[in-house]
Specification:
Number of helices: 14
Number of domains: 2
Distance between the termini: 80 Å
CATH architecture of the largest domain: 3-Layer(aba) Sandwich
Radius of gyration: 23 Å
Number of strands: 14
CATH superfamily of the largest domain: Response regulator
Strand order of the largest sheet: 7-6-8-9-10-13-14
Helix content: 40-55%
Strand content: 15-25%
Structural class: alpha/beta
CATH topology of the largest domain: Rossmann fold
CATH class of the largest domain: Alpha Beta
Oligomer: single chain
Largest sheet: 7 strands, mixed
């Protein structure tokens, strides 16, 4: 009996060791972003859905380097200190090979030094702040990559649109977050490249509900075209404030106007006012439709679907880099991303050498589409100006 009991315990212990070793062989990926606090949290949730869908598909096909991928999720609640803490935890304690996120641009700018110092790839798929993917110093190895919108690329298109309208009476507005002020700087830079001088520049808080004072200054200055950089809810409050003072200039906004939080704040009658950019309007290919059908029931709103695609494609690119590197070493994965030797067939597009040593953006102005709300749906926006724009118009 003693020998039998000892044998059983030995077999059980061996099984636990094998299971533990198998789990240790999983390649861990991390997500660090807002899932609960800011107006953009629903974008973070959609991004995670996309990452997990890609992981499930990769694992079903055999994983990467013979190992399964797993996802470790951290909610930074839109707070930079929390986001910094999460990044250190994911890299130092969880030993993730790459980190996706964040939801909010300001948080990425707060911790981008960490993946660069620790040589772990950060793959953005939501936050669009222009400076996120800039190296820490000229020529330095850069571990910040992105498959998402980029503020400066959006601004390049929107200001080109305003310039083609022939207007000289523009005004600029931005919320006081890192996201809003980064976008406002891009607006100021690029309007100068077009020889445009704003007649007024105004700021507002992300939680402000009445921007009548700022808009009255725009109106008094004769502004007929407003370019605004803010999250969804404050853009919604902005158009409500326009209604209060009966002032409706042409409104060109950040892509956050695609967020259901914008629609809810603006209401159906006013939601159609902004023109903005997206990486796609609605599913338009079999692969996009298949992914949409698979994930739509989990989304806060159909408008969040592009973040699913960003998360999905970003995961495919990281997995391709690990395969090419033959390793999970951060420096080797970075180098592989910068020199992918085979196209990666994503859901948004096929990525053929999307990155290089100096170019870390997977999507650029050529991948963007004009959009606006009609009733309760997002629809393509097309007019004589959009049809006339060419790559040469997009000054950066």
């Amino acid at each position: 009996m003693k020998i039998s009991s000892l044998f059983k315990r030995t077999i059980l212990a061996a099984g636990l060791v094998v299971a533990s070793l198998a789990q240790a062989q999983d390649i861990k990926l991390g997500f660090n972003g807002d899932l609960s606090a800011s107006p953009s949290a629903q974008s973070g949730k959609a991004g995670v859905i996309g990452i997990q869908a890609a992981i499930d598909d990769i694992n079903a096909a055999g994983g990467v380097l013979g190992r399964k991928l797993t996802l470790v999720i951290r909610d930074d609640q839109s707070q930079p200190p929390k986001s910094i803490q999460n990044m250190s935890d994911l890299i130092d304690n969880e030993k993730v090979v790459a980190v996706f996120g964040p939801t909010n641009s300001g948080n990425a700018l707060a911790w981008k030094h960490i993946p660069n110092q620790k040589k772990v790839v950060s793959m953005g798929m939501i936050g669009s702040g222009t400076d996120i993917t800039k190296p820490m110093s000229p020529g330095a190895d850069n571990y910040m990559f992105r498959v998402s919108m980029v503020d400066r690329e959006q601004v390049a298109v929107l200001v080109a649109y305003a310039a083609k309208m022939g207007t000289k009476k523009i005004g600029l507005m931005g919320e006081t977050t890192g996201y809003g002020q980064g976008g406002l700087k891009d607006l100021e830079d690029i309007t100068k490249l077009h020889g445009l001088t704003p007649l007024a520049t105004e700021k507002f808080g992300v939680s402000d509900t009445d921007m009548s004072s700022q808009l009255n200054k725009m109106k008094a200055a004769g502004v007929d075209t407003v370019l605004v950089w803010a999250q969804g809810t404050p853009i919604g409050q902005l158009v409500r404030s326009m209604e209060k003072i009966n002032y409706f200039p042409t409104l060109l906004s950040s892509w956050a106007a695609d967020n259901i939080t914008f629609f809810d704040a603006a209401g159906k009658n006013l939601a159609s006012k902004p023109i903005f950019m997206r990486t796609l309007v609605n599913p338009s290919t079999p692969a996009q439709q298949k992914l949409y059908d698979r994930t739509a029931s989990k989304l806060a709103a159909p408008s969040a679907f592009p973040f699913v695609i960003h998360g999905y494609d970003a995961t495919l690119l990281v997995a391709a880099a690990i395969r090419q590197a033959g390793s999970t070493d951060g420096d080797k994965v970075r180098q592989a991303l910068e020199s992918l030797n085979a196209p990666v067939v994503g859901v948004r597009k096929t990525y053929d050498k999307p990155f290089s040593k100096t170019q870390h953006e997977g999507l650029t102005a050529a991948d963007l589409a004009f959009v606006r709300w009609s009733e309760d749906k997002l629809v393509p926006h097309s007019d004589s100006i959009t049809k006339s724009l060419t790559a040469a118009d997009f000054k950066r």
